[in-house]
Amino acid sequence: MELAPKLLEKDYLDEAYYKINISIDNSNNAVLEAMNAANTSELAKALVEALQKELNQMTIAGDSSVEAAAARVRTLNNKTSTFTTLKDRLNDGDKERIRKQNEIRRRSNKNIVKIDLTSYAQHGFAWTDAPINVFTDGVSFYTDFDPISFMPASNRTVYVNSRTGSTSNDGLSESSPKSTLNSAMANANSTDTIKIVDDADVIYRNGLWESQVIRKSLRIIGKSGRRRKLVNADKLTYTKVSGYSFVYQATRSNVVEVVDFTFDELGVRYKNATSIAECDAIKGSWYLSGSNLYVHAFNDKVPTEDKVFALLTTPMFSVISDTQDVDLYLENIDIVGGQTTGNIYLDRRGYKLNLYQKDVRYLHTTGIDGNADSINADGVDLVYSLRVICAHSNKDGFNYTAYNGASEKKTAGKFIEVDCEGLVCGVGNKIPNVNNSHNASTAHEGVIGIRINGTYHDTVGVPVCDVQNGTQSLNLACTSYDSLAGTKDVYDACFSTQQSGALMILDGCIAFGAEYDMYAVTGSTMVILNSEFNNKQGGGTYKITNAM
């Protein structure tokens, strides 16, 4: 398109025709381009709506875990609603949470002051010297907390690029990277940084360390600007299956789940079909026969590379402190899958073990036993988390216990969660004989912790649950909602102290969407300050100030 020159006072009419015609041509072209853009926009919108309809149809068909029928029903303010998909239910819960949080924030006095944690000692809280600055405006809470500040200084950086690297490279520059985390870890000294600089968003199992254990202090960081998925799956090649309309086949045994990240950044699990024919009939399903994997993607097409993953029965991250103290720092990565370890398993043995993490997402554990948590911290000294998400676990999200993997009780550890979220934990109840005790965040056996601005919801059990004698938590501006237990008992609550001797302090918190917003069993104590909730239950002690 040529720019039209301006008309000048000295121009004659025959000179002006050319300039006027250019302007008219440009106007016509602009109109045509606008029409094309509108048509393209409408087409794009139609395509997106069609694809979303396909996804909804997939979830309507039913997923044995995430899309369990009970997970699509919620009761709020004595009104029961049934949603088409779990995503619709989650969105509705988010709207209610945001509405309640905004209502509380309108009460703020806007004068921000630092909180002295010793003010909670009067309520029995013991960790008043916790290494965190907390500020409040009278309603909301703020902090400058950053877990990396607790790590020892890093000596050097080892680079990993699973696409362009080589195990023979020294890994000491981005231009000479290692190709696997295995080789990077072997080359790294204690306190070194391992930086993942892949051009792609997904690092498959052969770029990880299979059946390896971290036994030294490390920082493992995804290069800023792009979140890396570390997936417990192999990169597969699919071919169309003759005689079926929508089924594609790949060679892979030991598959335990198939997860699709096309439309949901936290992933949607496909239904496990019982035959190829059933797989062909159900969008978003999979079937395994020996080493033959059959998949029917929700769009009826070949499964999308780097979006659809066949998760395996193998372990994921394991960390053990049996030879030296271990400080592990994780940042800017997603950890997807993991059977016997959950997403990450930490086992404190004869030496100290600490986990510090920021901007990490733990997704889709596949275990069917006690190691099905997103984060399984056994006897760990410290777990400090900032903006960490635990979602779609077969059991708990954040799980802290004083006993290690050898059933030895260690000095009860401590944890801090800031701006964290735990959701969709235990949906499907895949663990035998364990019902309605799946939590988004839970501490046990004397562990002490602080949660600030956390959001915990949609768990088959109490989203925030602290149990056993000596366990304590201070919860500031946390929101817990939508237990999926449906049992109208101690498991069907938002916040709970479930065993005698546990103490939970809530300040500025919100609870809704369960049979009971608060549940303190006999012998336990809940201190509730400036919080919004509708009811409470249990024979425990309640100390309530300024309920909203």
Mind explaining what this structure looks like?
This protein is an alpha/beta fold. The protein has four domains: 1-36; 70-144 and 435-548, no CATH class; 145-232 and 314-428; 239-311, no CATH class. The strands form six sheets. The chain has a 19-stranded parallel β-sheet that branches. Strands 19-21-23-26-29-32-35-38-40 form a nine-stranded parallel β-sheet, with no helix packed on it. It is globular. Mean pLDDT is 85; it is low at 6-20, 34-40 and 42-67.
The beta-strand count equals: 41
Count of DSSP-assigned helices? 4
Rough shape?
A: globular
Let me know the largest β-sheet.
19 strands, parallel
Radius of gyration: 27 Å
Low-confidence stretches: 6-20, 34-40, 42-67
**Any idea how many domains?**
4
Quick check: average pLDDT? Answer: 85
- State the secondary-structure class: alpha/beta
Report strand %. Answer: 25-35%
Helix % is 10-25%
Please give the alpha-carbon distance between the first and last residues.
63 Å
Short key terms for the protein model shown above:
globular, 33% strand, 548 residues, 19-stranded parallel beta sheet, alpha/beta, 15% helix, single chain, 4 domains, nine-stranded parallel beta sheet
